[in-house]
């Protein structure tokens, strides 16, 4: 990268967006989250690679964070921050969160994120969230948010919806990305890189979100490609977080009877199709609910590590906590590889960098050997 892009991260969670931006050359100087398990994950991996250096991890609610407290721990000052990234909790806007929007306290955290952006006055920022944000309250919330993030016209705002499978991520997951530029730059939408070559099967949304994708030579990245070299789960295995749930004979029997792509009526998770990308990872909470989908060949749920692969986390990335804590971090995350693609796109179009990383370079840099 031609420029050292000092970046603040909020709602960092398990670190997908942080890791992706760091791999693309951004300098993450500050991470923050309210979840202690996520903060420990960030600390565990801090400094693990030359591009993901050691930096402050603040474990607190964004409500309690001030620009002054950020400047104190980073040594930066107002107007000296290059970029801000973050995705306020999406459960308030998602189908699984019953789409309560601003009626849910988590939904109001979007305005706290806006408060921080205004206070640190960066060159630009990125806001990430679920696609359901666009339609809740008849679309009025989304319109209000985009307008608010222009900060009375000081930032040019570009907003797009992405189907991440179209960008070589082995998972169907639709996200909204909003980018702001104080320089008045309108960042174009990323062009798709991958596309499917088959018709939709059953309830699986295998059709591409873009007509242009069908003309691409690269097919979607499949579940089989990601999981084919994984050993069966073991407490003493060589993979971090590769420990599965114990299933009763009744559940095993049910899972065995599922067809590829079929949903289990009890657990409401789907049997993965080996020749297609995964369904979106289900998050859950500390009360439960977070689980992997059913493995395509073995009658069990995929492990947190297998789900992490579907989210393009490298195998060296360690998650702190037990199963439900890890799957929540994994499910809430932006896939690291997609974060890297977004970062390279921003670096090129907002910061004028001409030596950014492409898909294959990011796969190699993140050490995602299971995608090769």
Explain what you see.
Mean pLDDT is 88; it is low at 92-102 and 197-209. The chain is built from eleven helices and seven strands. It has a domain at 6-194 and 335-371: Rossmann fold (3-Layer(aba) Sandwich), CATH 3.40.50.150. It is α/β, with parallel strands linked by helices and 372 residues long. The protein starts with 5 loop residues before the first strand and ends in a 6-residue tail after the last helix. A seven-stranded mixed beta sheet has the order 3-2-1-4-5-7-6, sandwiched between helices. The chain has helices at residues 16-23, 36-45, 67-74, 109-120, 140-148, 223-227, 249-256, 304-310, 323-332, 336-349, 359-366, and strands at 6-10, 27-33, 57-59, 83-86, 124-130, 156-163, 174-181. Helix 10 (336-349) crosses helix 11. Its EC number is 2.1.1.37. The active site is at 90. It catalyses: a 2'-deoxycytidine in DNA + S-adenosyl-L-methionine = a 5-methyl-2'-deoxycytidine in DNA + S-adenosyl-L-homocysteine + H(+). Keywords: Methyltransferase, Restriction system, S-adenosyl-L-methionine, Transferase. This is Cytosine-specific methyltransferase.
């Amino acid at each position: 990268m031609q420029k050292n892009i000092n970046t603040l991260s909020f709602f960092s969670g398990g670190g997908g967006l942080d890791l992706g931006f760091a791999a693309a050359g951004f300098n993450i100087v500050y991470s923050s989250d309210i979840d202690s398990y996520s903060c420990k994950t960030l600390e565990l991996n801090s400094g693990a690679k030359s591009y993901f250096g050691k930096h402050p991890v603040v474990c607190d609610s964004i409500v309690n964070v001030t620009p002054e407290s950020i400047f104190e721990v980073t040594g930066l000052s107002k107007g000296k921050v290059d970029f801000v990234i973050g995705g306020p909790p999406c459960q308030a806007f998602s189908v699984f969160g019953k789409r309560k929007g601003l009626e849910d306290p988590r939904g109001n955290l979007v305005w706290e994120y806006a408060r921080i952006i205004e206070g640190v006055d960066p060159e630009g920022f990125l806001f990430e969230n679920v696609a359901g944000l666009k339609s809740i309250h008849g679309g009025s919330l989304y319109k209000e948010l985009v307008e608010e993030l222009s900060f009375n016209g000081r930032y040019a705002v570009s907003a797009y919806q992405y189907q991440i499978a179209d960008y070589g991520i082995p998972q169907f997951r639709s996200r909204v990305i909003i980018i702001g530029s104080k320089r008045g730059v309108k960042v174009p939408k990323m062009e798709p890189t991958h596309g499917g070559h088959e018709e939709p099967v059953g309830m699986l949304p295998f059709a591409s979100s873009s007509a242009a994708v069908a003309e691409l030579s690269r097919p979607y990245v499949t579940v089989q490609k990601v999981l084919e070299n994984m050993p069966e789960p073991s407490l003493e295995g060589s993979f971090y977080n590769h420990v599965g749930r114990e299933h009763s004979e009744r559940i095993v029997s049910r899972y065995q009877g599922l067809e590829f792509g079929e949903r289990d009526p009890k657990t409401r998770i789907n049997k993965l199709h080996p020749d297609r990308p995964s369904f979106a990872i289900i998050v859950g909470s500390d009360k439960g609910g977070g689980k992997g989908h059913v493995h395509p060949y073995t009658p069990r749920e995929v492990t947190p590590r297998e789900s992490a692969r579907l989210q393009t986390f490298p195998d060296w990335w360690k998650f702190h906590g037990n199963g439900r804590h890890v799957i929540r971090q994994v499910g809430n995350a932006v896939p690291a590889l997609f974060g890297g693609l977004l970062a390279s796109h921003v670096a090129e179009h907002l910061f004028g960098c001409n030596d950014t990383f492409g898909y294959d370079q990011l796969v190699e840099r993140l050490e995602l050997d299971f995608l090769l």
